[in-house]
Amino acid sequence: MRVIFLVFLLVISIFGEDFITKMEYAKMLYFNPRGIGCNLCHGKNGQGSIIARYRSKGKKRVLKAPAINTLSLATFSQALKTNHRVMPTYFLTDKEIEVLYFYVTSKANN
Ligand code: HEC
């Protein structure tokens, strides 16, 4: 019985990572990064989008989230480790940031 369990654990540890593809994981994280989904502001592929239109002092204004699919990894990563006025602060690991970067810069996606 114990041997079967150990074999089972071995199989999981070898094949476990392949249960979902990197792309599936990346998409999940982009839509649900332990906080508000990036897609809600930056669009479903990171192409950027309009968050709101409003009027201030009689002028029409537009609040936009920039495109994030053409940045360098360094800029992308830096932005996720600093505080912003509009964008929430996330607490992502370097690995998670890299996976999010993979998602928005993937050719299959844009
Ligand atoms: C509430 C809307 C909102 C959400 C949600 C959001 N962002 Fe942003 N993001 C912005 C805005 C607006 C900016 C421009 C800086 C600012 O004013 O906050 C920005 C800036 C950025 C930048 C820097 C862009 C540049 O040109 O330097 C990156 C990278 C980025 N966001 C990635 C993400 C990722 C990845 C997520 C999800 C983990 C996310 N954002 C979630 C609104 C959002």
Describe the structure.
The termini are far apart. Strand 1 (49-56) and strand 2 form a beta hairpin. Helix 2 packs across helix 5 (94-105) and helix 4 (73-80) crosses helix 5. Helices cover 44% and strands 14% of the residues. The protein has one domain. A two-stranded antiparallel sheet has the order 1-2. The longest helix has 14 residues, at 2-15. The chain has 110 residues and is α+β, with helices and mostly antiparallel strands. Bound molecules: heme C. Heme C is lined by residues 33, 36, 38, 40-42, 51, 65-66, 68, 71, 75-76, 79-80, 84-88, 90, 100.
Topology:
Elements: H1 2-15, H2 22-31, H3 39-42, E1 49-56, E2 59-65, H4 73-80, H5 94-105
Antiparallel strand pairs: 1-2
Helix pairs in contact: 2-5, 4-5
Residues 33, 36, 38, 40-42, 51, 65-66, 68, 71, 75-76, 79-80, 84-88, 90, 100 line the site of heme C.
Please provide a brief summary of the model.
The protein has 110 residues and is α+β, with helices and mostly antiparallel strands. It has helices at residues 2-15, 22-31, 39-42, 73-80, 94-105; strands at residues 49-56, 59-65. The protein is elongated and about 75 Å long.
Query: How many separate domains?
Result: 1
Provide a count of the helices. Answer: 5
Derived from helix and strand composition plus strand pairing, the structural class reads alpha+beta
Which spans of ≥5 residues are poorly predicted at pLDDT below 50? Answer: none
Termini, distance in Å? 49 Å
